[in-house]
Amino acid sequence: MEKIYLCLAHMSGKEQGYIQEAFDTNWVVPLGPNVNAFEDELEKFVRRVDESQAVGSLSKGVDNKKIVALSAGTAAVHLGLIMLGVGKGDEVICQSFTFAASANPIVYQGATPVFVDSEPGTYNIDPQLLEEAIKDRILKTGKKPKAIIPVYLYGMPARLDEIMEIANRYEIPVLEDAAEGFGSRYKGMMCGTFGAYGVMSFNGNKMITTSGGGALICPGEEAKQKVMFYATQAREAYPYYQHEKIGYNYRMSNICAGIGRGQMTVADSHIAHHKWLHQQYVEQLADIDAITVHSAPEEYMDSNYWLTTIRLEGEDACFDKVLDVQKFLDERGIETRPLWKPMHLQPVYKDAPSYVNGVAESLFNRGLCLPSGPCVGQEQQKHIIDSFNEYFKK
Ligand SMILES: *Cc1c(COP(=O)(O)O)cnc(C)c1O
Question: Where does ligand 1 bind, in terms of residues with CB under 6 Å?
Answer without folding.
Answer: 72-74, 98-99, 101-102, 151, 177, 179-180, 201, 203, 214
